[in-house]
Amino acid sequence: MLLGKGNKKMIVNALMTCMLIAAGCGRSTETDKLQTSGPKWWQQTVAYEIYVKSFMDSDGDGTGDLNGITSKLDHLKELGVGAVWLTPCYVSPQADNGYDIADYYNIDPAYGTMDDMERLIEEARKRDIRIVMDLVFNHTSIENEWFKESRSGKDNDKSDWYIWKDPKPDGSAPTNWRSIFGGSAWEYDETRGQYYLHTFLPEQPDLNWENPEVRKALQDIAKFWIDKGVGGFRMDAITYIKKPDYADGRPDAADGLTGIHAMTANTDGILDYLHEFKSEVQEGTDIFTVGEANGVAPSDLKYWTGKDGVFDMVFEFGLVNIDLPDESNWCERREWKLGEFRSFFSENLEVSDETGGWFPAFLENHDQPRSIDHFMPGEGDRIAKGKALATLLLTMKGTPFIMQGEELGYINVDWPSIDDYNDISTRNHYSFALEEGYTEEEAMDGVHHFARDSARTPMQWDASANAGFTKGEPWLPVYPDYQVFNRAEEKKDPDSVLNYYISLSGLRREHSELREGDYEDIMPDSDSIFAYTRTQGDKKATILINFTDSEARYDADLIKDSECLITSCGDTSPGILAPFEAVVYGQK
Ligand code: GLC
């Protein structure tokens, strides 16, 4: 029999899986079977994002590390987590906290060694947890050997691996594009006498995906990690990999530049590269992919996810940008209505239903504010808000992604000075605001709302010094509320956000309708209550969440013949929700 390329790959993968199982790699046979029908393992589980630098420090250097993560796997197990997305832990000079990769094949010494990684993958597998790597493929670090060679002259093996362009006749940058982190997106290099493009920092030069050798090198990296036993990939900044014509855009701010996002995100031809990646890397494996899809409008999602799409799931940005019309300007927030918030879910779910795709439910990640402050700003009890949002996350159709700390009810940091903030993008946003004429107070207000540091403070494990995160000096200050909001204390308190997460996750495991059931918005006109059903055959769950700090009423007929499965307030009355109350009813 002649074997096609895809078949061969499938057989090789299946053989490799068997060999690994036989070698006692701690893999569970259940998740290793290549499934042909029914829900996939990653559709049935809960995912969790770890900001590696801030999760747990095992060696007292103030920085989280892989052994720290291994020591805390039971926390994740208890939360019902089956997939753990690690932010990049490869060798990196850390200009953007690891999103600038110098060597994709090795672990940064600050985080441990490859042995530590293999142990983490294996220990996680013993608990039915798969590790998901963050593939940063739009750009590398300037310290990457590829870039070093590329910048050494115009005539070397890698000279075309990055995006090099001649200056304009007057010596200025090839286009007037502003990088996402501020300033020109072009950096001049003396040796080549040319500019290179960087969508993000100058320390993050963009790779040239037009070059098939680059694409092959990136595919090889992904295959290397699949062979290590990881369960999936989060594809970083992936909407920027295909550049259109290099033309100036209309200036959108006083600096005379135009945001690169508007010029290069999701441009024609990008999907060809991603289809190639999918067929070369993913086919015949049981891994999943989730793309960071900033710039993909809901109308385009059908090309990105679903049976004919390029990724299993995509993080669409409609929700996290609900209050931010222009991502580069943190000083111009807008008011939003609950209807818009709901639409994000309806639109995404509609596309995934139509295309056979799958939705990654998320309210936070390491680039976003904490959801309590983001989506339930203003007055009200933060614990009630944390539980209300947890209800949404864990009863939504799709795979829920919890950001570390979200399960403890974290809120934003509000450090007084810009010097207190570590994140380069936060500091650049602040400077941009001042350049655009905003006052220092306005610029800091933007920082307090959107700083990425809020999602990155160390994990609060207990009430001991530095919240039990490190025995050394933490790289970023621990949030001062750690004496109360920490894992150990919350575990003891039956009313804590943490215990509520654990219960909800258990409920999701018990009720297949919460994982697989159809979603229907049942109060589409309400400005205060987000209510929906999840229906599977004769099983139905009804979820009602009050987004306001006042009592809200609904028609009790919506929950006729139902019983309360869980409520965030301990007690609930049919037809009425207390401020920020959330409740899940199940059919009797
Ligand atoms: C993504 C990451 C972000 C990073 C950027 C550049 O948006 O989530 O943290 O700074 O890409 O890699």
Q: What do you see in this structure?
A:
This protein is 31% helix and 16% strand. It is of the alpha/beta class. The protein folds into two domains: 11-90 and 101-135 and 222-237 and 280-509, Alpha-Beta Barrel (TIM Barrel); 519-587, Immunoglobulin-like. Strands 13-12-10-5-2-1-15-14 form an eight-stranded parallel sheet. Strands 16-17-18-22-20 form a five-stranded antiparallel sheet. Helix 8 packs parallel to helix 10 (270-282). The longest helix has 18 residues, at 5-22. The structure holds alpha-D-glucopyranose.
Q: Structural class, from secondary structure content?
A: alpha/beta
What is the rounded distance between the termini?
Answer: 55 Å
Strand order of the largest sheet: 13-12-10-5-2-1-15-14
Number of helices: 19
Structural descriptors:
single chain; Immunoglobulin-like; 22 strands; 16% strand; binds alpha-D-glucopyranose; 588 residues; five-stranded antiparallel beta sheet; 2 domains; TIM Barrel; eight-stranded parallel beta sheet; alpha/beta
Write the layout of secondary structure elements.
Blueprint: H1 5-22, H2 29-32, E1 46-50, H3 52-55, H4 66-71, H5 73-78, E2 81-86, E3 90-91, E4 103-107, H6 114-126, E5 130-136, H7 145-151, E6 164-165, E7 177-178, E8 186-189, E9 194-197, H8 212-227, E10 232-236, E11 258-259, H9 260-264, H10 270-282, E12 288-292, H11 301-304, E13 313-315, H12 338-355, E14 360-362, H13 371-375, H14 382-395, E15 399-403, H15 424-435, H16 440-450, H17 487-492, H18 497-510, H19 512-516, E16 518-521, E17 529-536, E18 539-546, E19 552-553, E20 562-567, E21 576-577, E22 582-587
Parallel strand pairs: 1-2, 1-15, 2-5, 5-10, 7-11, 10-12, 12-13, 14-15
Antiparallel strand pairs: 3-4, 6-9, 8-9, 16-17, 17-18, 18-22, 19-21, 20-22
The protein binds alpha-D-glucopyranose (GLC).
